[in-house]
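Design a sequence for this backbone.
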């Protein structure tokens, strides 16, 4: 993870600028009906702050988390709002959020660490809360420009998240990358509900 964070620290401005205006409206349209109005959302790996900004603008209470120190600074400036500098492996909330939004963030977690991260997300959600995840579709682990990526098939991701019977799949879909230089990339999106404990 250290090399991945170093990449985002070193390329924070370009990453911020190229992702800030991406249109996430289709994902919002599928995710938000599962979240109670004005509910609490955790934006885990908020990057530029794009999605936090949208959720706040329509009345949600958002806690933004960004492990890259430099990206966090840019997100704070963009949002004029606090952003927590935590890794996915160290978040520590209990029964607090109505929803967790993990847009292109958990793909940097190795598969052998994902179960413990999912356990933290489960603990952070209120009963019946929902979890959105987007990852790159594919197989195996890849290092791209120094960043670690864990790819998943649809079956692999769903099995990984639901294998402990703590999350139930609500929706899953694919979409293409909006960036002109990434059009061959397919994104796997899924929404899960935390089952009542």
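Sequence:
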């Amino acid at each position: 993870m250290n090399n991945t964070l170093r990449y985002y620290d070193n390329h924070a401005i370009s990453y911020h600028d190229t992702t800030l205006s991406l249109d996430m409206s289709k994902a919002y349209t599928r995710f938000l009906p599962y979240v109670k109005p004005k509910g609490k959302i955790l934006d885990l790996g908020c990057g530029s702050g794009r999605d936090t900004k949208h959720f706040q603008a329509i009345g949600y209470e958002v806690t933004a988390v960004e492990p890259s120190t430099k990206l966090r600074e840019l997100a704070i400036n963009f949002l004029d709002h606090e952003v927590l500098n935590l890794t996915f492996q160290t978040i520590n909330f209990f029964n607090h959020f109505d929803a967790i939004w993990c847009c292109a963030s958990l793909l940097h977690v190795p598969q052998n660490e994902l179960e413990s991260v999912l356990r933290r997300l489960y603990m952070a959600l209120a009963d019946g809360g929902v979890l959105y995840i987007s990852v790159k579709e594919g197989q195996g682990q890849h290092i791209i420009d120094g960043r670690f990526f864990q790819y998943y098939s649809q079956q692999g991701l769903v099995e990984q998240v639901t294998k402990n019977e703590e999350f139930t799949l609500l929706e899953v879909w694919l979409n293409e990358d909006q960036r002109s230089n990434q059009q061959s990339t397919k994104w796997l999106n899924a929404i899960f509900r935390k089952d009542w404990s």
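Residues 2-9+26-194 form a domain with the Rossmann fold fold (CATH 3.40.50.150).
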